[in-house]
Amino acid sequence: MANPTTLNLACLRQCHALEHGTVWVLAETQPQITLGGTATDHGFYIYGAVEPRQLEQAVQTALERFKQGEAGLAVHPRCGTNLSVRMVLTLGLSLGCGSLLPRRPLPRLLGVGLAVFGASLLARDLGALTQRHLTTAIPHNLVIQGVTYEKDWLGRGGHFVRVGWVN
Description:
- The longest helix has about 30 residues, at about 105-135.
- The chain is elongated, with a radius of gyration of 19 Å.
- It has two domains: about 5-75 and about 140-165, Threonyl-tRNA Synthetase, Chain A, domain 2 (2-Layer Sandwich); about 80-130.
- Helices cover about 55% and strands about 15% of the residues.
- By secondary structure, it is α+β, with helices and mostly antiparallel strands.
């Protein structure tokens, strides 16, 4: 029997991927709308001006496209994972430069500037890799249970796409 914690993490990663896939599908049909999302281990929220029926169709389309092998839908350039990776890289490279360079202000300033520049160059690709291998997983054990309008844990209103886990 699978560990419940592992099972929830697997579901969270699949919900995160399905959230990204849904945003990609909606952006293809309605490029003018601005969307955001948050995944949970029971589904995901979509924030933005989208009709529940359109959202439900986009979720079904994304799920179908994942089943047809479109794994790239799981990675999105505006994902919070990218921001996290960028911050960790910037901090790590800045601290590394700061400890390796002389203690004079100008070399340190140049080092930190180089670190920030290097982090911005690396973050996009490393963020995508992090999404692909750590924070998302291709949804293959999910079934859509419905779309409702709810408030998230921060009190923000959005459409919640509830999913079920299929063994």
